Sequence to fold (465 residues):
Amino acid sequence: MKIFNTLDRKKEEFIPIEPGKVRMYVCGPTVYNYIHIGNARPMIFFDTVRRYFEYRGYEVNYVSNYTDVDDKIIKAANEEGVDSSVISERFIAECKKDCEGMNVLPATVHPKATEEIDGMIDMISDLIEKDFAYEVNGTVYYRVRKFRDYGKLSGKNLDDLRAGNRTLLVTGEDEKEDPMDFVLWKPKKEGEPYWESPWGQGRPGWHIECSVMSKKYLGEQIDIHGGGEDLVFPHHENEIAQSEASSGKPFSRYWMHNAFLNIDGTKMSKSLGNFFTVRDISEKYDLQILRFFMLSAHYRSPLNFSAELMQAAKNGLDRIVTAVNRTDELLGKAPAGAADAELTAQADALVAKFEEAMDDDFNTADGIAALFELVRLANSALDENTSADTVKYFSEKLHTICDVFGIITDVKEEVLDADIEALIAERQAARKARDFAKADEIRDKLAAMGIQLKDTREGVKWSRI
Ligand code: AMP
Ligand code: ZN
Fold:
């Protein structure tokens, strides 16, 4: 298998530290709101990477954190007048719901930064001891110039960076020895969560979280570290500086970064009004479609979100699911008989094509193209007269590949809008006739179908839960 390694800017053969095992860390979301569809891209992609490694027989230890202490969380908590853990726990729960909808499997561990503070204090103390960090007035900084390899991931040069950051020196950050030094620990401010530390009450910087959680759950050296491309600098560069200065060993062998998701050709941003949460999208589309849409492009290519592309993804997904269901139906009535050697060989060739694409830096776009070819072959070659062993062979291959992409093939009975509207009208009629028992019964029936009703001045509004 080949992986494009951001560290060397080229594709490299994947060689795990421990044969047969993959240790993988992917930076998770900061939980101050519902996750947006940009956040969904690394979640879906790296979930697929994990699934493909498992398909290839690897045991994957997949760690993805929740950043649950951060300025944005504190701000949201202060606005609501609640503790910041109320905000972070709420949005961790919502994130899990979205992941379930996108069929993103839970990671092996989902550590929370606030539960790993001791490890952060230990690593910061170790960095101070090794002279890679220093404390000034309750703030601990990383001494960037001490780490000779600084810039190796992002390809940035310290002198250039310094020139670009000269303004920092005149904006009050002059207690740093160098404008590029970054914060490992910051002192508490009024109204903020804090922990006791050797440097006084305070909280950790963002970068140290991932170095520590990765070390705790995966060890000092890991195979793959992933995230969106915006994390290359400074987050991942700083993680390398922290982890490698502390352990004296190379941190992650492969660094993988997904490109950004844009909306109708422009950057998604709240101020431009083109910002969508996964929850927003789930009101219009099945999240399976969002997943399939994300995988239809190569992860290192920018991806544009648009209604047309989502429609195309829906059509493609329908084609696959219909073919799998048809094959399974045929299986139920296929005549007993041995597998057709020619047909199974054709299927094998397409499975090989799928593997070749995925082995080539997880080219999901080409992998899906191979799946479509297998779908076409199944549709044209299998019928009521095909032997049971042949149909079974196709069914297994289709299911296995669908599983790698996280495509759910057992479709639930679709609840049509017209059916819902008819039931609502029936309930209104019952209410008018003062038959409240019947009205309640219909409300319960709708609830069981995942439909929520809301009585408003404009009449009854409904939504899918
Ligand atoms: P954050 O919560 O901002 O720390 O982001 C969580 C993950 O989502 C990181 O891996 C980011 O790189 C990634 N991410 C954020 N915005 C986008 C986007 N528009 N497209 C793709 N990935 C993104
Ligand atoms: Zn991180």
